[in-house]
Amino acid sequence: MAQALDPTEVTALLHERRREALARLAGTDAERDAVVAASRESVADDEHDPEGSTIAYERRLLDALTHDQRDRLREIDEALRRVESGTYGTCTRCHRPIPVDRLRAVPTARTCVGCAGR
Ligand SMILES: [Zn+2]
């Protein structure tokens, strides 16, 4: 069994995750637009619409989701840079190789499981 992930495989994995994150981000943006449009309509209909608080809540939720996806994208880009610089797959805390299984499950992992749990 290989001691390290093939950089080609890692890059492919990371690009796949990147596409997923971008697709989710686009979906969240579309949902937010729909919520904003709905909130404008409901304000026009009735300023005391009880749905107003639901819309505010949905917007907060969508903002949080967008934030999460941006964080994820940043992590993916950082991981891709680590692949380029050759530091990918090395635990940033104990400097030992991160097990291949962990990298396959969590391609953006910066630490081994032991260090992540600390
Ligand atoms: Zn470690």
Automatic annotation (TrEMBL):
The keyword Zinc-finger applies. It comes from the Bacteria. GO terms for molecular function: zinc ion binding. InterPro entries: DnaK_N, Znf_DskA_TraR. Keywords: Metal-binding, Zinc, Zinc-finger. Residues 86-118 form the Zinc finger DksA/TraR C4-type domain. The keyword Cytoplasm does not apply. It holds the Pfam family zf-dskA_traR. A zinc finger (dksA C4-type) spans 91-115. This is DnaK suppressor protein. The lineage of its organism: Bacteria, Bacillati, Actinomycetota, Actinomycetes, Micrococcales.
